[in-house]
Amino acid sequence: MESNKHALILTGDLLAGFEAGAVWQAVAEHFRIEPARLHGEVLARVPMMLKESEDLADLERRAAALRAIGAQCEVHPSSGGSYFVLLENVPRGPLPRSYIDQRIRSGAWPAVLKAAPPGSSEWRVLPPLAAGVPLAALAAAAIPAAAESEADTVAAKIARVADGIASRKEAVLPLPAGEAIHAGFWRRCAAYLIDNLILAIPTTIILMIPILGFFVYIAGRWAYFALMESSPAQATLGKRAMGIIATDGKGQRLNLGQASGRYFAGAISYITLYIGYALAGWTTRKQALHDLIADTCVVFDTVRPDQPLPTVRPRMPWYGWAANCLLLAVFPIAILAAIALPAYQQYTVRAKVAMAMVDADAAKLAVAEAVAAQDGCQAQFPASTNPLVASIRISGEAPDCVVTLLFAADSSTPGMIRGQAVEWQYSDAAAWTCSSAIESKYLPASCR
Fold first, then answer.
1. 272 and 154 together in one domain
2. Residue 411, domain extent
3. How far apart are CA 422 and CA 429, in angstroms?
4. Element at 331 (helix H, strand E)
5. Are 259 and 291 within 8 A, CB to CB?
6. 399: cis peptide before it, omega within 30°?
7. Residues 6+ apart with CB under 8 A from 318
8. What is the arithmetic mean of pLDDT over 243-250?
9. Are 160 and 189 found together in one domain?
């Protein structure tokens, strides 16, 4: 059965209009390998097969990506097997026989070549690959003994690593910086907001449970973020909606330990008043503080370990902008509310205290009149119609009479004054001295 496989071949040539240094630097970044390794392990042996696959469309996409940065490459059928070939006593490849045949037919290579299949250390003359190559030419394929010995030594070395050539070319190195690779601050911000909207209702319910609810809340958030980011999807629901995933610094999938470390490192970004999160807008690889600590990245979901790095940045979805606009609208409102609500609450409590003081003032007036008439401080409990007042009591001996107002202890009374008392003591100087355990900001000016 004939193979349906094809091979992607890097020829080592440049497309017109491109400069060699810039092209090979871009190719090194494309394959995530060091430039020195590219020159030593790839360019020293071009042309060579980069990838073999039955997915022809995928190979064509890869070829187009390489051509876009100026590197010439071709896609050929893989029928006939693959070989290393000796050109000017330098091993090249591996290459499919169809490519070797095409080079011989075009006259670019000699009609007779010595070759070795991957895994072999012996160089042998290949049978004629192209129609019209005379058999007699095989006899003329003599190579000097010294050159053949040297070639066999090199071939043996290359053959030992031939099977791992693809993995070595795509050795895992740290992800480079790039707008088409790393998700920026606003996209991450939108994903985080979506996640928190999803968690809002269960969080509210859980936190209603005293004490235990807090620990369930922490465990639940950890499970949501760490388990999802270490799953095959590599993303929470919010990240999926925004087309981004969490990876380690080399673009690999996180394991549960790495994802957990990243989650708990987020506490440091939080306690820095969110400045740690804002670093995602400034760092070269768009990493927040917890990403730097855990050596993780948040990248677009087109970044995959077995594929070339993308060169086009995906557009922000409309709902991502909507989420950010909502955040920008809610954030200042939340700040104003945090300032205004306590102030309003303080104002309403002071207003209620002031209304209760009206009944206390009536009692104080009665005491002042009794002392002036030398009637003394007759113990009594003046009535009050204010629901916040539990009782008003007059006590003491003239002239040191005391008026005590006790606030009600039921739930309709604000907690700051519930069950608390305010006491006024009269003196022979016809002056009142006020004292209370209530915070002074809730008391009238005469009691502060």
1. no
2. 343-447
3. 21
4. helix 318-372
5. no
6. yes
7. none
8. 94
9. no
C-alpha of 235 from chain center: 9
Domain boundary among 316, 331, 354: 316
Residue pair 408/392 in contact (Cβ under 8 Å)? The answer is: no
Q: 50, 37, 275: which is closest to 172 by C-alpha?
A: 37
Give a yes or no: residue 105 inside a domain.
Answer: yes
Token pair 């003394």 is found at: 376
Residue 387 amino acid letter: P
The model's pLDDT over 41-82, given as tens digits with 9 standing for 90+, comes to: 788 888 888 888 888 888 888 888 888 888 888 888 887 778
pLDDT exceeds cutoff 90 at 300: yes
Residue pair 221/213 in contact (Cβ under 8 Å)? The answer is no
Eight-state DSSP code of residue 280: G
Q: Classify residue 337: in a domain, yes or no.
A: no
**Backbone angles phi and psi of 369, in degrees to 5:** -70, -40
Closest CA to 323 of 439, 399, 238: 238
Nearest Cα to 206, choosing from 220, 226, 222, 195? Answer: 220
pLDDT tens digits, residue range 140-159? 333 344 444 444 444 444 44
Is 175 among the domain residues? no
Same domain, 402 and 286: no
**Residue 335 exposed, middle or buried by CB count within 10 Å (0-12, 13-18, 19+):** exposed
Q: 210 vs 164, 202, 217, 223, CA distance in Å? A: 58, 15, 11, 21
Percent helix / strand / coil, the chain, rounded to 5: 45, 20, 35
Question: Beta-carbon neighbour count of residue 348 at 10 Å?
Answer: 10
CA nearest neighbour of 422 among 404, 439, 410, 440? 404
Which among 230, 273, 269 has a CA at the least distance from the CA of 252? Answer: 230
Question: Which letter does DSSP use for residue 227 in this model?
Answer: I
Round the CA-based radius of gyration of the chain to a whole number and report it. 41
Gap between the Cα atoms of 191 and 81, Å rounded:
48
Which of 119, 134, 169 terminates a domain? The answer is 169
Task: Provide the residue type at 336 as one letter.
Answer: L
Inter-helix orientation angle 56-68/20-30, to 10°: 140
Q: Within this chain, do residues 163 and 196 fall inside the same structural domain, yes or no? A: no
CATH code at position 376? 3.30.700.10
On whether the CB atoms of residues 6 and 82 are closer than 8 A, the answer is no
